[in-house]
Amino acid sequence: MSFIRFILDRHQFTLVVLMLLAALGLSSYFSMPRAEDPQFNFPAATVIVIYPGASPEDVEQLVADPLEESINELEDLKKVQTTIRDGVAVTFVEFFQGVDPDDAFSDVQDAVKNAERELPGEVADIQVLQQSPSDVNILQVALISSDADYGLLRREAERLEQTFERIPLIKRAETWAFPDEEVHIALDFERMRTVGIALPEVIRAIQTTGANIPGGDLDLGRTRYNVKTSGDYGSLEDIRRTVIRGSGSSAVFLESIADVDFGFADESYRARVNGERAVFVTAVQREGTNIHDVTALAREALTGFEQRVPEEVRVESVFVQEDSVSERVGGFFANLFQGVLLVGIIVFLAMGLRSAGIVMLAIPFSLLIAIGWLDFSGFGLQQMSIVGLVIALGLLVDNAIVVTENVERFKSMGLSSREAALKGAGQVAGPIISATITTILSFLPMVLLQTGTGDFIRSMPLMVIFALGASLIVSLTLTPLLAGASRRRKTENGEDVTRERKATWLNLQLETIAKGRYTRRLRQAVARPGLVIVAAVVVFAGSMALFPFVGVSLFPRAEKPYLMVNVDLPEGASLDRTDSIARQVEDVLRENEGITDLITNVGHGNPRIYYNVVPERDNAAHAQIIAGLASASPTAITERIEELRRSLREIPGAQIQVKEFMQGPPVEAPIAISIVGNDLSVLRNEAARIEQVLLDVPGTIDVDNPFERFKTDLKVDINRDKAGLLGVSLDAVDLTVRSGLAGLPVTSFRDEQGEDYEVVVGLPSEGRPGIDAFDRLHVVSNLGGTVPVRQVASLSFESSPSLIQHRDLERIATITADVVPGANVAEATAAAMDALADVNLPTGYRYLVGGEEESRAESFGGMGQALLIALLGIFAVLVLQFRSFRQPGIVFAAIPFAITGAILALLITGYTFSFTAFIGLTSLVGIVVNNSIILVDYANQLLQEGKSVLDAIVEAGQTRFIPIILTTLTTIGGLLPLTLTGSSMWAPMGWAIIGGLIVSTVLTLVVVPALYALLTKAPEFEIA
Hints:
Elements (H helix, E strand, L loop, with lengths): L1 H8 L1 H21 L12 E7 L5 H16 L5 E9 L2 E8 L5 H16 L8 E6 L6 E8 L5 H16 L4 E7 L4 E7 L1 H7 L3 H11 L7 E4 L2 E4 L9 H5 L2 E5 L2 E4 L4 E7 L5 E4 L2 E10 L5 H16 L7 E7 H31 L1 H8 L1 H15 L6 H30 L4 H31 L4 H6 L1 H25 L4 E3 L5 E3 L6 H23 L1 H22 L11 E7 L6 H16 L4 E8 L19 E8 L4 H15 L6 E6 L10 E6 L3 H17 L3 E5 L6 E8 L1 H6 L4 H12 L2 E7 L5 E7 L15 E3 L5 E3 H4 E8 L3 E4 L2 E10 L5 H12 L9 E4 L1 H32 L3 H7 L1 H16 L5 H30 L4 H32 L6 H29 L9
Parallel strand pairs: 7-26
Antiparallel strand pairs: 1-3, 1-4, 2-3, 2-30, 5-14, 5-15, 6-14, 7-12, 8-9, 10-11, 13-14, 13-19, 16-17, 18-20, 18-21, 19-20, 22-31, 22-32, 23-31, 24-29, 25-26, 27-28, 30-31
Helix pairs in contact: 1-14, 2-12, 2-16, 3-4, 10-11, 10-13, 10-30, 11-13, 12-13, 12-16, 13-14, 13-16, 13-30, 14-16, 14-26, 14-29, 17-30, 17-31, 18-28, 18-31, 26-27, 26-29, 27-29, 27-31, 28-29, 28-31, 29-30, 29-31, 30-31
């Protein structure tokens, strides 16, 4: 009470402090970062190694194994997973939560450098990429032209890339979907054979001539001079005039045995926009920036760029994340304002205009203070933090309602305004502090959740905690000041009298219920507490029996106006074949009226435009089409997917999957089952068994077994005896075959504009070389003269795996599947595991369950732990407040009824128990015990005044009935607009909280008093 007295005595200082905090929050609102999804880093990295021309088995042995062994020496590793295809190995490295992401990335870089010494010299490229959900392209611009060549498109794309990179708010810009320019040295093996020059001699001459070796410096007197040597190549003419062999006055120049010119590397990535050829330029915003500011600057730069682009090139922004951010953030703020309006209406109907105004002032002050604190904590405004505001909205006024109601109650008893404010606020200060702390404790474990899901949702519980803390401050400072302000009027005699608050219609109705029907039912309940408790237990047990009918899921759909169509051909398929199938898919998509735009990527996934979708890289057998939709409603998307799946089944020769963007951490597929073992043939057989099991599970679709897709390779068989007799070394044959068929990078060349080009030695060829190129290859023997490669080697066909997968240094085979709309992933996975339980595995082999099941176990496991911590923390606070073990147990009686209400609400509305519903249930733990705290605390006060247990609990129930009902209604009103949007992400959470509040409030007003009557003995409050 002394604190309340201090506030009332120094109200000027109190108001100034509150205004200052609100002003800081308002400033933060306009300046803090805005994005669609939370921006955070987690400790993970991806290593991509390109080894052109190597089979998966060679890449595994020569690249993946040494790389994984080096990475495996790092500390705190959670998972090392590698996918190996022709010429490429992609290794995903994940560390345990709590490891600094930058340190983890640095450690992976060091491990890769250590492994480089063991990798083949022919490795073309090694990339180490830091994985970050926030590292998403906010802008994808297409440069479209059916007439311009790739040279022009490349130059314009790079010019736009440089334009974007000059914007300070842009972290990185990249170009996509065109082949690299390089210098082609097309060797004439016939002329080389005539002059007796071997391929190694040509390569050595080019490499030594093109080397740039600094000459150091030289002191001459008082001046130091840098010594410039011959340097590297300065022009194509310099390359042509490379001396391959010289003797006396004659020399053999490169141009006499080869054609040297600019050309393009083999095309590995093609892109189209609505059927027209395109290249892409993307941009990633810097962390902590506002997406609206970044996009505005990028659009301004793009406008200037378009004015100087050639006529045959059209510039089009095919993806702008700002549009989605504006729609989503705007939608959440609309829900927030609608919730404020509903809460205001409820409070006005129950308390009248003046009291409602006092209570409603808690909302803007609390929200602004919370936003300021969130900004100070380093978080921005995005869907999670704004949803936190919506959840907190109804809770913000709870404390203000309790304080205002109690002050008005003391005024009606004849106390002066100041005394009413002092006594009314002081009496409930303890309970509302405890109630606020218990609610905060229910959200705090979510803040501390050390998983990827925890990182994703962290700003939401943090916002709720900040808002609750701010509302507690406001309710104990501003609310008593305003509620205690005297409402006086002059009488006809000139005397000042205090105006009495007029009871509203809703208040009168609630008061009538409290003093009439509720009091009668309450007296009946406390007279037979055992019967009430038994009935409550039966209700709870019955609701738990209904839980299996609700079902469990993880994260729902993202409800974005896009679909992903993934096209996968058998490994070894050419880029042209993949492109042909992709065009057939485009034709089907164009016939669908609900699709507006098509962005096609062949040989590569679309650049990353969503936080949990990582694009496929460098795979000629893969294509991805992003289809824009006219409507993002869940019903429209489901219908569109079903239509497209039926239509696309008619295209043979490829596996075609139609997917929508999903929320939550990335998963490889809804259902993923792996078999772990060493022998590839055994893995292949077991993978086929898993595939059949998944095909037999009702509701599964798009079952994919990559191990069934073996490919046929051409093998060069060298006759070692014959090669030895002819003086031909094996490495000379390998080198010749490699340069002739795939081309061999030997050095680099920088032109006058500073552009770098690889210099590649190979055969003259239009497009990809055919099998006839093998007949043109010759190798110089150690005995002098040349030998046709055909004379010492032959070609043969052999079958080989198209894909090899590793997890934690072991070989695995992963089979994935999706489910039809309406089917439950958890049930389908459980059915598959039941079927696999009867399968006998070979010795040394085992199953792993991935997909949503693995992610759900990690996410729900962490949330289960968080819920347990929350319960223990709340119980500790209640023990501290009541100095008893028994009374906290009485308060906890509200929690089972919250679970009952949540289950019933989800069952009625048709939503599954998703991760967000679990968040709602965890939130309920703190919310529902508040009503019990207020009830039990007031009953204890009445006991101390000498009333009997039954009279105390009945009077407490009658007195606290209206505040409890009002706080429940305001919480529901704050959540209702968000819940009624039908969002598959947030509606389950909203219904879980609303259902839990309704049922727990109704039963709490009866069961908690019954328990109190049964377990409490007046006037003892010792430890029981």
